[in-house]
Write a structure and sequence with these properties.
The protein is an alpha/beta fold and 441 residues long. The chain is 41% helix and 13% strand. The chain has helices spanning 38-44, 64-82, 92-103, 119-131, 146-154, 171-183, 207-220, 243-246, 274-288, 293-305, 308-333, 358-367, 397-421, and strands at residues 50-51, 114-117, 137-142, 158-165, 168-169, 188-193, 223-227, 251-256, 268-271, 338-339, 347-351, 370-371, 373-374, 387-391. A hairpin with a 2-residue loop joins strand 4 (158-165) and strand 5. Helix 11 (308-333) packs parallel to helix 13. Bound molecules: 4'-deoxy-4'-aminopyridoxal-5'-phosphate.
Length: 441
């Protein structure tokens, strides 16, 4: 259906009008908005544009012949069960393998505590559905993962951001936010955190801070939602113990095969204390009856029959090389900015000089054939105006360098314009999450 120009939908036939049923929508849909930069991302997917925006894993190196054979055998040997409905909690064999995967990060989990989900994205949704009423507060890092902000806003939660720095969430900021919430009589239901190789900030919570954050949440009786999609994708660093492995009764832990295998299979998981797990299974059954049987069995067979640990090492090398290329290019071309140095994962968080507005600059950047995600996408409160997320997971090292060179030209042109005419920034938008594009990741 063609896009309708804003304010002109009244002339379209009822069944094609975007506003046709607006007055009947549930109140919770108010938080479901596409961002005004979404159209730009359609342009940004053209091959001539270097996209530093998308967070899609780089799965070109997967051995597709071998995988195809594994899938063929699965259908031939066990098609009638692999293509059937199955347990709401997830395939028992896969749940055992998930515990082995978690052990690589030093975590112990029992298969009974695992709930398989449709990617970890669905796990965020189910946990929020189980815990949050409209108006409940969810604490999130500043900035925070765009897809989780979308879930919280969909359930009408109030997101309150807690400051972070290069060592992750700042414990003092967490304490003072909790005190402020309690003084205001607000119920804090969850702390949502991505402690390792953060999306979008690219930082990792230090070991000392992990202990402090757990201690503070324990004292305030706040449940932690630990989202760890990138933990196995570290460069030259040993994984830090997860929050969950310190204190399993205080943490709902989320993992996924999206970054270590393939996101299209949509297989993730939650590990939760018994009572929470019980509710998550009921919520899962009402959402999907069961997580996709076929995908789960593909993942289980892949883990059993292919050298997946070598594949994860290959992914690490690939992302490491690309991170280095991006950082070198930033050093060379963007000295006016500052940025984080990720030890793993996909993202670098860039802070421009204070007077620049990354959202206002984006159309010019796309015109110059480079795209990024403006910082405001990762805040529920309008923050991040002079910041942006750059992903290095997809472009080749040469393209990354070229992308940063183009970006530097755009930043320089913006600085010159401002020197001549003053600020070109759009007025600061009121708080409210807007999803830029599904590919943003
Ligand atoms: N959490 C974080 C922090 C992510 O970056 C992503 C994907 N970009 C997800 C959750 C969702 O991943 P999936 O649903 O594919 O497992």
């Amino acid at each position: 259906m063609p896009e309708q120009p804003a304010g002109r939908s009244a002339g379209y036939p009822l069944h094609t009008r975007l506003d046709a049923y607006a007055e009947r929508y549930a109140a919770r849909t108010r938080g479901m908005k596409a961002s005004e930069i979404r159209a730009l991302f359609a342009v940004a997917s053209r091959p001539e544009v270097v996209s530093l925006a998308g967070g899609m894993p780089n799965i070109g190196g997967l051995g597709l012949e071998a995988l195809g054979e594994t899938i063929r055998q699965l259908v031939v040997d066990s098609g009638t069960s692999a293509l059937q409905y199955s347990s709401g909690q997830g395939d028992p064999r896969l749940r055992e393998h998930i515990c082995d995967v978690m052990a690589l990060e030093g975590a112990t989990a029992h298969p009974d505590d695992v709930v398989v989900t449709v990617g970890s994205q669905q796990a965020v949704d189910l946990v929020t559905r189980v815990f949050c009423d409209p108006g409940d507060v969810v604490l999130c890092e500043a900035p925070s993962y765009v897809g989780a902000l979308g879930v919280f806003s969909g359930y009408e939660c109030e997101v309150v951001h807690v400051e972070m720095d290069e060592h992750g969430l700042i414990p003092e900021a967490l304490s003072s936010t909790l005190t402020r919430m309690s003084a205001a009589g607000r119920r804090v239901k969850l702390l949502y955190t991505v402690p390792t190789f953060h999306n979008p900030a690219g930082v990792t919570m230090s070991a000392a801070r992990r202990g402090e954050v757990l201690h503070i949440c324990q004292a305030a009786d706040v449940l932690i939602l630990e989202d760890n999609p990138y933990g196995l994708l570290g460069f030259d660093v040993d994984p830090l113990p997860t929050l969950h492995s310190h204190e399993p009764s205080r943490v709902v832990y989320l993992g996924t095969f999206s970054k270590t295998f393939a996101p299209g299979l949509r297989v993730g998981w939650a590990v939760a204390p018994l009572a929470v797990r019980d509710k998550l299974v009921l919520a899962q059954e009402s959402a999907t009856l069961c997580p996709p049987t076929f995908s789960q069995q593909v993942v289980a067979r892949y883990l059993e029959r292919q050298d997946w640990q070598q594949q994860v090492k290959d992914f690490r090398l690939l992302y490491h090389e690309r991170r280095d290329a991006l950082l070198r290019a930033l050093d060379e071309y963007l000295p006016a900015a500052s940025w984080t140095v990720p030890d793993g994962g996909f993202y670098v968080w860039v802070t421009l000089p204070d007077h620049l507005d990354a959202t206002a600059m984006l159309p010019r950047a796309v015109g110059e054939r480079v795209a990024y995600v403006p910082g405001t996408a990762f805040f529920a409160d309008g923050g991040g105006r002079n910041q942006m997320r750059l992903s290095y997971c997809h472009p080749t090292p040469e393209r990354l360098v070229e992308g940063v060179r183009r970006l530097a030209g755009v930043v320089e042109a913006e600085r010159e314009l401002q020197a001549m005419f003053g600020s070109t920034s759009a007025p600061r938008r009121p708080g409210g999450y807007q999803r830029p594009h599904p590919d943003v990741g």
